[in-house]
Amino acid sequence: MKEYYLFLDESKPNSNFHNFTLGGVVIEKSIYESSVKPMINQIKLECFGNDDVILHEIDIRAKKGSFKGLTYAEEIKFFNSMKKLFKEKIFHVIAVTINIDELEKLYIKDSRNDIYYIALQLLLENFTHFLTNSNGVGSIYLESTDPSNDCKLQNLYFSLLATGTLFLKKEFLQKKLKTINFGIKTDNIIGLQMADFIPNALARKSLNKKQKPNSLIEEIQEILYDGKMERKERFGCKEIS
Q1: Where does residue 220 fall: left (phi above 0), alpha (psi -120 to 50 degrees), or beta otherwise?
Q2: Which of 20, 128, 133, 235 is 20 to 30 A from 227, comparing alpha carbons?
Q3: Total domain count for the chain?
């Protein structure tokens, strides 16, 4: 039985961007170790001269931190390299994006479930669907933010495994889903760095917002999981609006 990783990141709502998106990349463990990690490290070396640098889209675009002094030409080279990697189609994207304005028209804030619970439930269903089609089991990785939020997400995860979701029984979830893990940024976890480029692009697409220059949205859309039935809108990026 194959083993898969789902590396996740999130895009939170703000005053100009009222959307919550949780999404990332699904990669088979053997492919992650033998191909994806070496390819990302090679991109780092070629574009930044250092494979210890931590990829963070906001910092790259703002030329901050480790990317201070980065030229626009070097930025384009990096994003073109990432696009080339995504076009290899050796991993998939799974995400949930929620339009907060539309959600609040339907359910008042005090009455509805936590936004993480809504998103995580749908995400786990679609990840489990993928694992079933791929004859695999999977583990989830997120970047650690703070102990309180990590604990909240961990509790939500195990709560869903204990009760099941709308469509899937708890016994089936427990059979396919293994651990949930929280990595810190300095751990240089390649999968989490890849996931960093997913939520914002999909959130902008969902809200019909203009994409950032050199966006990976076209490449992301090409590798959205389709449930093996050409339904990317259901299994790849589920929109709640």
Answers
A1: alpha
A2: 20
A3: 1
What pLDDT digit, counting tens, does each position of 152-191 carry? 999 999 999 999 999 999 999 999 999 999 998 889 999 9
pLDDT band (50, 70, 90) for residue 5: very high
For residue range 189-203, list pLDDT tens digits in order: 999 999 999 999 999
Residues 6+ apart with CB under 8 A from 225: 26, 92, 93, 94, 126, 129, 130, 232, 235, 236
Would you give the distance in Å from CA 179 to the centre of its chain?
16
Whether residue 48 contacts residue 42, with contact meaning beta carbons closer than 8 Å, is answered with: no
What is the spatial distance between Cα 44 and Cα 78, in angstroms, rounded to a whole number? 8
Confidence at residue 224, expressed as pLDDT on a 0 to 100 scale: 98
In a domain, 16, yes or no: yes
Chain centroid offset of residue 134 CA: 19
Is 102 domain-assigned?
yes
Please report, to the nearest 10 degrees, the dihedral formed by the alpha carbons of residues 189, 191, 197, 201 taken in order: -150
158, burial (CB in 10 Å: exposed 0-12, middle 13-18, buried 19+): exposed
